Amino acid sequence: MTVSPLEARLAHHLDLTFAEREALRWLERREKSYAAGDVVVREGAPVECLYIVGSGWLHSSVTLRDGDRQILRFYFIGDITTTLSIAWHHSAATLQAVSDTTLFEIPKEMFGDLFRRHPRLGALMFAISASEQVSLGDRLTSVSKNDGFTRIATLLLDVRSRLRVVDDLRGSSFELPLTQKDIGDAVGLTKTHVNRSLKALEATGLVERDGRVIRITDIDRLAELVDFRDRHGAIATDWLPAVGAPAPVNA
Amino acid sequence: MTVSPLEARLAHHLDLTFAEREALRWLERREKSYAAGDVVVREGAPVECLYIVGSGWLHSSVTLRDGDRQILRFYFIGDITTTLSIAWHHSAATLQAVSDTTLFEIPKEMFGDLFRRHPRLGALMFAISASEQVSLGDRLTSVSKNDGFTRIATLLLDVRSRLRVVDDLRGSSFELPLTQKDIGDAVGLTKTHVNRSLKALEATGLVERDGRVIRITDIDRLAELVDFRDRHGAIATDWLPAVGAPAPVNA
DNA sequence: CGCTTAGTTGAACGGAGTCAATCCGCGTGG
DNA sequence: CCACGCGGATTGACTCCGTTCAACTAAGCG
């Protein structure tokens, strides 16, 4: 029996019951593959499905009137994508593969049914969504208040931290399969200034680059330098409802 | 029987059953009052409860190392606050009353139980949370890519739009009980530049100010000018699970 | 009536954008 | 095997939006 990415993710926070595990695997039957650069869903297109990331990197972004792009979020294995758009019939953002990826496609209705059959998992999804919202808030703060150097350092630390939780990231180095333009679109800088800031980061000796492989030589010191707060640790689950057969609705 | 704020909000999206209405009202028993400026929850403090806004304005913010502040979100009647922090035992942000407010305090466990007893409401909460996330993404985009004039215009349009949905806002004018420093903390500008941008907005004739009362004379034209997208309309509910007694967990 | 907080305005500075040239790695085709 | 072309990375010069610093005014309040 293979380990499913979403199951693995959630099991990180909770001791899942057999039925819960079963239900999660049930969601991951329709597998699809995309090549690096492929657009999975375009902004404004109708969305009937959510996608669980099976492997690879993706990002979601919006395009402005002048053609400029804002990258909102990166997705890694075990993440659920297009939840952003679940509130509408049309996608609020473009979902694009950064590297080669596999996705599990699940119809929205099936996701909705999960709330009914496994309320505890529904509540856990809510909590995960909340933590993602905090993470987005952190980036807003970073973009709003910090200079380029700090924004990029924060992005690197954030990505590394998520890869560590999500992937089996061992050492201090990791691949960042993004162009400098992409980085700029994520943190609100031009590619020119991204380049300058990356150089400045290297100059401190805290970050090394080899092509698109990044190595942070002293994570703690860099984190201290830019006041980075890691949000990707454990999440509180003590408030979740009891597991098992849901209580009947009383009058 | 009084109309509860949360009930009214959710009924906007869904035909609620009697049992669901009952459950929502059940959440709103512990009422508390706060004066303008009061801090309800401080960043880092333990949180055991969520708060439904009964009346008034609030905002949540984070404080940076240098004392600078980033306002993440404003809350109005019917909003659920501190959901941001539900994933942790300690608050991720400071919740502060902007005007005099009343809040309904609900223990996290009771909120969790809502997912079990009324899965459809749980899923709806998830959708609302998703739409808030999109809204936050819009602000990230605005702060990341737009100049001061546009950022503030967007904030004004956004607040007006939310007040219109949430409150019985009739005309084109509304009170903005914020200092220019507050506005700056929300959109990432200094108070100096907020002032200049407000002046510039007035100069276009599209916005009038009288103290803290704002009047947008031509909403459509201002929206067109700054490429504003209103996210606070209806949300899709067709994917929600069926109402009624939850299905038993099958083997 | 002073004191404090918020709003307003001016001058100078600087971080990041803009524009533009150059370099580099890599795939493609001759 | 090498010339060519292309997308991305790098670097420099100049400009400008927003900050910083610093008055000064207006308004609320004890």
What does this structure look like?
The structure is a homodimer of 251-residue chains. Chain A folds into 2 domains: 1-119, Jelly Rolls (Sandwich); 146-234, Orthogonal Bundle (Arc Repressor Mutant, subunit A). With 251 residues, chain A is an alpha+beta fold. The mean pLDDT of chain A is 92. Chain A has a 4-stranded antiparallel beta sheet. A 4-stranded antiparallel beta sheet of chain A has the order 2-7-4-5. In chain A, helix 3 (108-117) packs across helix 4 (119-145), helix 5 packs across helix 7 (191-204) and helix 6 packs across helix 7. The first copy, chain A, contains 8 helices and 11 strands. In chain A, strand 4 and strand 5 form a beta hairpin. Helix content of chain A is 41%, strand content 21%. The first copy, chain A, has helices spanning 5-11, 18-27, 108-117, 119-145, 148-166, 180-187, 191-204, 219-226, and strands at 30-34, 39-41, 49-55, 58-63, 69-75, 80-81, 94-97, 101-107, 173-175, 207-210, 213-216. The interface between A and B is large, with 69 and 68 residues. The first copy, chain A, binds a DNA duplex (30 and 30 nucleotides) through residues 147-148, 179-181, 189-193, 195-196, 199.
